[in-house]
Specification:
- It contains 8 helices and 10 strands.
- By secondary structure, it is an alpha+beta fold.
- The protein has 2 domains: about 5-70, Winged helix-like DNA-binding domain superfamily/Winged helix DNA-binding domain (Arc Repressor Mutant, subunit A, Orthogonal Bundle); about 75-240, Chorismate lyase-like (Chorismate lyase, 3-Layer(aba) Sandwich).
- Strands 4-5-6-9-8-7 form a 6-stranded antiparallel sheet. Strands 1-2 form a two-stranded antiparallel sheet. Strands 3-10 form a two-stranded parallel sheet.
- The longest helix has 14 residues, at about 10-20.
- The chain is elongated.
- It starts with a helix and ends in a 14-residue tail after the last strand.
């Protein structure tokens, strides 16, 4: 028996539909046939078709839209965790057309939480910057950054739509980062974030929180939060096996 015939029937259907998507015969946002139509065309049970479609949904090839049907999902960009420090560079390396929009730039007093995160006094002046990043004209990342005004003097003089924070840090302010602490969690879009990313309120997002520390004093100099649309982005982490089991440094 050939390898193809030895595969479960649902798996063969799954690979058939995936090939249609990968070859471009089924474009993103295309509504696919119903389970009943697939069942009749392929001569298999609806249960078999349902399992194949469910596997494709789990793999990100398809997405189910409540009350509408099943559609070909938009292709996701996989970001390495380290690349998220400089989104512009990451997109340029993938030959993806980028654009940015500065949504907010203001000076605010540091709250207790922000003061603790940045190692400054409560009430100290902070720059609060909000930038919307586009990939192929689609808003995919909302960046919110907080910078101590004393450590980032005259930040308003720089074009934050075309320059990454990391590049400013190293090239303009001559600071060498020692380490970057990042956490990723699943959140849903609030009303304001939903409007900015052009999704519905409650839409699933990835929230990447980041603190950049300076070399030498190991002092926190930037705190930022990036909201990533889950339908366009995923984050990849590379773990060295030799590090497993080692005590975590705090």
């Amino acid at each position: 028996m050939s390898e193809e015939l030895s595969k479960p029937l649902y798996n063969q259907i799954q690979e058939y539909i995936a090939e249609l998507i990968l070859s471009g015969k089924l474009a993103p946002d295309t509504k696919i046939q119903s389970e009943r139509e697939f069942s009749e065309d392929l001569g298999v049970s609806r249960m078999t078709v349902r399992r194949a479609l469910t596997e494709l949904v789990n793999e990100g090839f398809l997405e189910r839209r409540h009350g509408s049907g099943t559609y070909v999902a938009q292709p996701k960009v996989t970001y390495e965790a380290r690349e998220m420090v400089s989104y512009i560079q990451a997109m340029n390396e993938r030959n993806i057309a980028t654009a940015s929009q500065l949504l907010e730039f203001k000076i605010m007093a540091a709250s207790r939480r922000l003061a603790e995160l940045l190692g400054i006094q409560i009430g100290s002046p902070l720059y609060h910057v909000s930038v919307l990043r586009f990939a192929n004209r689609v808003p995919v990342i909302l960046e919110r950054g907080y910078f101590s005004q004393s450590r980032w003097p005259n930040l308003e003089e720089w074009n934050l739509e075309k320059t990454s924070v990391y590049d400013l840090l190293t090239s303009v302010y001559k600071v060498t980062p020692s380490r970057i602490s990042q956490t990723v969690e699943a959140v849903v879009a609030t009303d304001t974030v939903a409007q900015q990313l052009r999704v519905e309120e409650g839409f699933p997002l990835l929230l990447l929180s980041r603190i950049i520390y300076s070399e030498g004093a190991d002092q926190p100099i930037v705190f930022s939060q990036d909201f990533l649309r889950s339908d366009y982005a995923r984050v990849h982490f590379d773990i060295h096996l030799q590090d497993i089991g080692k005590p975590i440094k705090t």
